[in-house]
Amino acid sequence: MEDKLYYSYNDIHNICVEKANTIKKEFVPDVILAIGGGGLIPARIMRSVLDIPIYVVSLSTYDETNNPINEPIIVQWMDFSKLRNKKILVVDEVDDTRKTIEFLVNKLANNEEISEENLGIFVLHNKKKDKVIGINNLSISYYNYGEMVENKWIVYPWD
Ligand code: G4P
Ligand code: MG
Predict the structure, then answer these.
(1) How far away, in angstroms, is 46 Cα from ligand 1 center?
(2) CA distances from 26 to 31, 37, 87, 139 (A)
(3) How many CB atoms lie within 10 A of CB 125?
(4) Residue spans per domain, the chain
(5) Distance (Å, rounded) from C-alpha 40 to C-alpha 60?
(6) Nearest CA to ligand 1 atom 27
(7) Are 88 and 30 in contact (CB under 8 A)?
(8) 95: exposed, middle or buried (C-beta count within 10 Å: 0-12, 13-18, 19+)?
(9) Which ligand is nearest to the CA of 129?
(10) Which ligand 1 atom lies nearest to the CA of residue 123?
(11) What is the CATH number of domain 4-155?
(12) Does ligand 1 lie within 6 Å of residue 94's CB atom?
């Protein structure tokens, strides 16, 4: 049995376009908030369908010497007042432990101008495994993924 899952740019493109069309009807976002690095390419592909601005924050769960760390660290942040009263679609490539998503959603939800109702998440891949938090316990009103996958290492075309 293959121990890794491989995806091509074409696979990623097809997932993003299909799901962006669904999200356009179901959640109707005003802006995309991409989580760099992995969320950048999916966010840009989805923008071709959604036709809305892309904002970016960059987070990492690896330190300067490439060792995994427990809490995501902020590589680059943004002024959340720009997101006031907007429906925000957060885009990342993978929901693995869910630490990154939990971290960002908590930071967003801490702002008075950003309500739970205005927060949605999209990830290309949701891994079947135990997560640090359940979707129902996040301050979001929408969650969608491209594919649910086994708990294996995913190799993206940009890796
Ligand atoms: P999560 O909160 O998004 O669920 O993920 P978690 O922090 O547990 O993931 C740690 C890092 O490992 C993240 O990278 C995530 O994108 C990456 N990752 C997890 N599983 C896979 C996988 O199967 N394949 C690949 N290629 N990456 C995976 P990061 O620190 O956010 O870096 P970046 O690559 O997004 O810049
Ligand atoms: Mg990432």
Answers:
(1) 20
(2) 14, 26, 12, 18
(3) 21
(4) 4-155
(5) 13
(6) 154
(7) yes
(8) buried
(9) 1
(10) 3
(11) 3.40.50.2020
(12) yes
Q: Which residue has the tokens 């969608």?
A: 144
Instruction: Return the structure tokens found at 104.
Output: 């960002």
Q: Encoding tokens for residue 55?
A: 């904002």
Q: Which residues of 66-84 are buried (b: 16+ CB within 10 A; e: fewer)?
A: eeeeeebeeeeeeebeebe
**pLDDT tens-digit series, residues 43-89:** 999 999 999 999 999 999 988 888 989 999 999 999 999 999 999 99
Contacts of residue 129, Cβ cutoff 8 Å, sequence gap at least 6: 96, 97, 151
Q: Distance between CA 62 and CA 85 in Å, rounded? A: 32
**Do residues 152 and 6 make contact, with C-beta atoms less than 8 angstroms apart?**
no
Total-model pTM = 0.96
pLDDT tens, position by position, 95-105: 999 999 999 99
